[in-house]
Amino acid sequence: MTAQVDRFVHDRLPPPEQLPMFRYDLPELQLPDQLNLVEELLDKAPAKGFADNPMLRSPTRTLTYAQAAVEVNRIAQVLTEDLRLVPGNRVLLRGGNSIQMALSWLAVVKAGLIAVATMPLLRAKELGDIIEKSQPAAALCDGKLLPELEAARADHPVLKTIIAFNQTDSPTSLEAHAATKSGRFTACPTAADDIALLAFTSGTTGKPKAPISTHRDVLAMCETWPRHVLRARPEDIVLGSPPLAFTFGLGGLLIFPMWAGASVFFPDGSYSPEGMVKLINESGATITYTAPTFYRQVAPFAKQIGVPSLRISVSAGEALPDATRQLWKEATGIEMLDGIGGTEVFHIYISAAPEEVRRGAIGKAVPGFTAKVVDEEGNEVPRGTVGKLAIIGPVGCRYLDDPRQAAYVKNGWNYPGDAFVEDDDGYFFYQSRADDMIVTAGYNVGGPEVEDALLQHPAVAECGVIGKPDAERGMIVKAFCVLKPGNDADAEMVKALQDHVKATIAPYKYPREITFVDSLPRTETGKLQRFKLRSL
Hints:
Layout: H1 37-43, E1 54-57, E2 62-64, H2 65-82, E3 90-94, H3 99-110, E4 114-118, H4 124-134, E5 138-142, H5 146-155, E6 161-165, H6 174-179, E7 195-198, E8 212-214, H7 215-222, H8 225-230, E9 237-240, H9 247-260, E10 263-265, H10 273-283, E11 287-290, H11 292-305, E12 312-315, H12 322-332, E13 337-341, E14 348-351, E15 364-365, E16 370-374, E17 387-392, H13 405-408, E18 409-410, E19 413-414, E20 418-422, E21 428-433, E22 438-440, E23 443-445, H14 447-455, E24 460-470, E25 474-483, H15 491-504, E26 513-516, H16 530-533
Parallel strand pairs: 1-10, 3-4, 3-5, 5-6, 9-10, 9-11, 11-12, 12-13, 25-26
Antiparallel strand pairs: 1-2, 7-8, 13-14, 14-15, 16-17, 17-20, 18-19, 20-21, 22-23, 24-25
Helix pairs in contact: 2-3, 4-5, 10-11, 11-12
């Protein structure tokens, strides 16, 4: 039975006809109808032998699972005793990746509240949109990020309380409040289908969407990709750049390590390419998560300095060009673990373990999921044919009060909006976002394929490819390239890159226009913003 007395989110779930179907085909997906994911991952850690394992690390602090449980309990006490929040209330979380941000997220969910984590770079206007849609009763915010949130609250007084963390010298900080508490707190007896989080999208093309994840969803995802593909160990140390406000980061840098009894290292400050290599070595990291673009920047330093402790490198967030995969393998000896997932289903649903990699493919459907490539009517297309990806599994898309739900879920299947080809062995080859497919003179061209070809040229540091409207061909392929230092952005370079693409992939796919730029527009999570390229 539900424990969430505040029914705000439950009452705004999609109508029954727009809900996804769920399949729990594996024995490990048979979860009880009442569970609290933080109780399962943290409170039960001692029974799994993890109590004294390091869980959260930073340059100045390390907490074991047992110690982290006490800190989480203290924050949960602040939320329920001091703020008098009740299960189902939303709590906005604002902060970079830090031990205190991780503890705060876990405390919110353990108390039966709903975590609404937000990207650190969001401004007051964007925060206001999230507050308006989610109606949070309180916020926990890193002290360095208070000004924008305070400005957003001025226009959205529904957010009554903000408590700052990472302000240890302040008598009103979250740490000061928590220090007065006993550290004893019983997890809220949530139903498996009670809501754990609203994971707002970055909102790069309009109003942000708010996918909903339940306690069951998060734990079910632990039993799919982490169990069958990642296969982390208790001795692993995980490090990476994705924000905890992004489900790729939340899974990779908190939930999945906890499921395995491993630990996470949160550095002070942001990453640089050389700095990441040094942090890997200083922390002894064995697993890394970041986007392909950053791996490409890190590779020269990894090759020069070495990363002897590293055994797994996970790439996600955007398409992984094979050129980047090979560059990283040549630099480190590590076969990249690629995957595609989505905020709507929390994490990765197509991937391949390093020993099962097929060049150019992302991988196969992760155990627990079924995937197919379909036409506009939802009919499966022949193998080797481009179509839209459709998936079904133990999780599925449920937007909070959003008409876009009808476009994502059709006949119970989830349509992430990606164009793929599936081969005869069940490997899936990413082509593009479905709405980014370039149709030129009757040919379908995926931008990532052209980007991969361009990246194989020694002069190209980064690139982005779009379709540009053209009266004669319908569209032409247009590339935006960032050149490495020492290369001239001139007509000769344009021809050299065009000839290189023609020699690498089918000649009709070559970029008929190339524009040289100093940098490419990207989201906070590293995704290329092609819609901005179209306006250049």
